Amino acid sequence: MIDSMKHLKKDGFEAISAEQSPAEFEALFMGHWAQVYRLLRRLVGDPAEAEDLALETFLRLYRSWPHKYPNGLNIGGWLYRVATNMGLQSIRSWKRRERYELTAGRYALEETAQESPAEILAQAEERQRVRLALASMNERQSQLLILRNSGLAYKEIAQALDLSPASIGPLLVRAEREFEKQYRALAQEE
Amino acid sequence: MQKHLTDGELRAALDGELETGRLQHLEVCPDCQRREQQLKVESMKVSSRLAFLSSGEEPVSSAQAAWNRFFQKTQDKEISMVKRWFTIPVVRFATAATVILALILAFPSTRALAGELLNLFRVQQVTVVPVDFTGLEQLTGDGALGNQFTALISDSIDMRQEPGEPVAAASAEEASQLAGFNVRIPAGTTPSQINVTGGAAFSMTLDRTKAQALLDEAGRSDLVLPASVDGAEISVDIPASVSVAFGTCPKPGSGGSGNHEQSTTQRRYPDCVILAQIPSPSVNAPANLDIEALARIGLEFTGMSPEEAAELTSTVNWTSTLLVPIPRNAAIHEQVSVDGVTGTLIQRSSEETPQFALLWVKDGIIYAISGLGTNSQQAIDMANSLP
Predict the structure, then answer these.
(1) Residue A169: its chain B contacts at CB < 8 A?
(2) If DSSP codes are grouped into helix, strand and coil, which group holds residue B134?
(3) Which residues touch B250 (CB under 8 Å, ≥6 apart)?
(4) Does B271 have pLDDT greater than 80?
(5) Quick one: closest CA in A to B19, which residue?
(6) Residue B173, Cβ neighbours under 10 Å: how many?
(7) Beta strands B233-238 and B355-362, pairing class
(8) B30-49 and A165-189 helices cross at what angle (nearest 10)?
(9) How high is the mean pLDDT of chain B?
(10) Highest mean pLDDT among A50-64, A107-121, A130-144, B249-263
(11) Cross-strand partners of B357
């Protein structure tokens, strides 16, 4: 399990109660901010974009707080699901690919541990291709791959995506094959 | 002999997520082990490409700083809207509410039914609906959507009677004469101003294609206006209204609804309380209009879930209920007994700018008392002292 998930309860995500107050929303925000931001930071690459998307994710929860959600809502899972959706939408919305490449290149300098400019460029292109491949897939499959590769266990993924834990293995196989197909198609285009 | 493992089970085994019983089979089955190795190669290739999603501990802006930004975002949206709704004179309020209502209603069927108009809407009661104003803000803002919305309204509306500028009246009697209904002033009080604003009337003919395009543009293509509502006329009549001010209040028409002017207004007029009165506006629309379906669309647009919208629309009498939207999470409301009927008290409890508004309907007249501060009892006492 990744570090940012360590504060969550051992038996899964925290539950939300219909009686929770705005003050409790602040506590929830403080408790989940880092993990939501980091997920988006890795997914979209751009720190400012990640912060905006993370704020928007919490805003969506807040707008209907608390009555819209039933007791026992899996709040961490909800935030993960919405955050990945928003990250994928953001990547899709960058229709002008040049802009995406430029941004990806700029932030690759921060993301990479490599020092050679050629390696930095290669890694930036690789990550760009991965992001575009994820954004071009079926949403559920993309979410599955992102959450699994962010370090979530099957049970946590199942809670976040409202699936049964037993279905995660088969769905992962299909998602990985689809990802590879999309990735190769993008590589051939270049 | 157990069945061979599926690819999904083998994938779970690679992640250490396979149940013990099936693992035992894997340990003794060379065929499954061979397939597991093949799957491992495939899976590792994908995992290595996605490895950056789990790497490192990127610097994160402090949660407190992020919360401050978040809080500011919510306040910007909610305060601007609540100020708008709480402080506009009731005639503007009624006009705005009627326009919103008319928009909800005004997707009529065909011109052939124009002859079958009925007096569809006359306010007998008020129902408060907590909504998310984001959708409405998109339509009323300065962005592309706001401009589209403005263009749609101006193209659709035929103004038959302009309200004109407010006219000062020296007494309740004079105001009654000017407005054409019995204006009431609380016993034992001396108003600082009485102003009468003339009635207004307009017709609307909605273009379904343009209205749907607006919804689509606002990201709500899930809300589909029925094709049959295109083209019929809705007519709205708003009677003359009276605004009775107590304390030091701004002159009517001097602005005050803008955000920038708002804070100044609140500092300059802290004791201002306004009692507004207006006979119910009326809305005429084709008899076969499916108001409930259209209202559901309007409510969903303002942030309600389909279930909530369906529940509300099924319980509201659309021919007699004025829906008053208030910002979700920024204001509270409760039912109170005033003036011999049941009214609705809305309060915004903010340390900086607490406000209150009391709304009720009696004998076909809509009343609203609004003021700054937390002394909402003042509004209730005032309502109960009306002759």
Answers:
(1) 6-12, 15, 17-18
(2) helix
(3) B256, B265, B268, B269, B272
(4) no
(5) A166
(6) 12
(7) unpaired
(8) 60
(9) 73
(10) A130-144
(11) B346, B370
Whether the CB of A153 is below 8 Å from some CB of chain B: the reply is yes
**Length in residues, chain A:** 190
Q: How do strand B241-246 and strand B233-238 relate by DSSP bridges?
A: unpaired
Q: What is the pTM of this model?
A: 0.48
Mean pLDDT of all residues in A125-147: 90
Residue range B151-178, pLDDT digits in tens: 776 677 777 777 777 889 999 999 999 9
Bridge partner list, B358: B345, B369
Instruction: Express as a percent the part of chain A with pLDDT over 70.
Output: 70
**Which residues, other chains included, contact A178 with Cβ-Cβ below 8 Å and sequence gap of 6+?**
A137, A138, A141
Q: Is B284 helix (H, G, I), strand (E, B) or coil?
A: strand
Cα distance between residue B25 and residue B43, in whole Å: 21
Asked if the C-beta of A140 comes within 8 angstroms of chain B's C-beta atoms, the answer is: no
Which residues lie closer than 8 Å to A81 by C-beta, 6 or more apart?
A143, A160, A161
Tens of pLDDT along B314-355? 777 766 777 676 766 667 788 899 999 988 888 876 655 677
- Choice between A173 and A97, residue whose per-residue pLDDT is larger: A173
Q: Which residues of A touch B47 (CB under 8 A)?
A: 149
Q: Which of B325, B292, B288, B334 is nearest to B311 (CA)?
A: B292
- Rounded Cα gap, residues B156 and B298, in angstroms: 18
H or E element, residue B66: helix B63-87
Sorted by where each starts, the structural domains of chain A and their CATH numbers stand as 12-93 (1.10.1740.10), 136-190 (1.10.10)
Model confidence at A69, pLDDT cuts 50, 70, 90, reads low
Give the model's pLDDT for residue B104: 37
Q: Give A172: exposed, middle or buried? Use CB within 10 Å, 0-12, 13-18, 19+.
A: buried
Tokens of B303: 């942030």
B58 and A2 in contact by Cβ < 8 A?
no
Q: B144, exposed or middle or buried, with CB in 10 Å at 0-12, 13-18, 19+?
A: exposed
**Residue B221 pLDDT level (bands cut at 50, 70, 90):** confident
Return the sign of the alpha-carbon dihedral for residues A80, A85, A90, A94.
Answer: positive
The identity of residue A148, as a single letter, is R
CA distances (Å), origin B46, targets A161, A179, B54: 21, 8, 13
Helix (H, G, I), strand (E, B) or coil at B206: coil
Question: Min CA distance, B271 vs chain A (Å)?
Answer: 30
Which among B66, B133, B84, B23 is positioned nearest to B257, based on CA atoms?
B84
CB atoms within 10 A of CB B23: 14
* Chain A residues whose beta carbon lies within 8 Å of the beta carbon of residue B132: 63-64
Q: What percent of chain A has pLDDT over 90?
A: 28
- This complex has an ipTM of 0.79
Q: In 3D, which of B378, B380, B371 has the Cα closest to residue B269?
A: B371
Please report, as a single letter, which amino acid is at residue B198: G
